[in-house]
Structure prediction request, 169 residues.
Amino acid sequence: GMNAISLKGRSVLGLQDFTAGEIERILEVAAQMKKIVLSDNKKRDFLKGKSIVTVFSEASTRTRSSFELAGKYLGADVINITKSSMTKGESMRDTLLTVSAMGVDAVIIRDSSEGAALFASKVMSPKVKVPVVINAGDGGHQHPTQTLTDLMTIRRRMGRLDDLNIGLC
Prediction:
């Protein structure tokens, strides 16, 4: 059934890589997580022992804070790398290689250049381990986590996701 769907180890570069069933599963879990976030006890240990790095070369306080809090709520250790903390002349590639060498479990990337998340997923060294990459927006290209948030809202308001006409303004 639906619960058999496993997304373990999957990167989220864009939603075209996911089936409708997988997206439904993500939204189901998100609804459960929302209840936890709104409860008095937000701390869970689902990601205990895991490390997450957010690499934001583009300022986005809401998105970065959301990921940081989510990681902490789930018990992961989270650190943030921003454009200002990337040393002079250090490219995104250098930053990603450093992050990869640290053995982190997940990298959440926000960058103004299209395809940055795909680039990140390819550049990190498999010698240590390749972290899961989550695209938190790559320019005018894709923002799959924002899309999932929008789908969650539509599903909550309309009761379904299929057979709808949606206008984007």
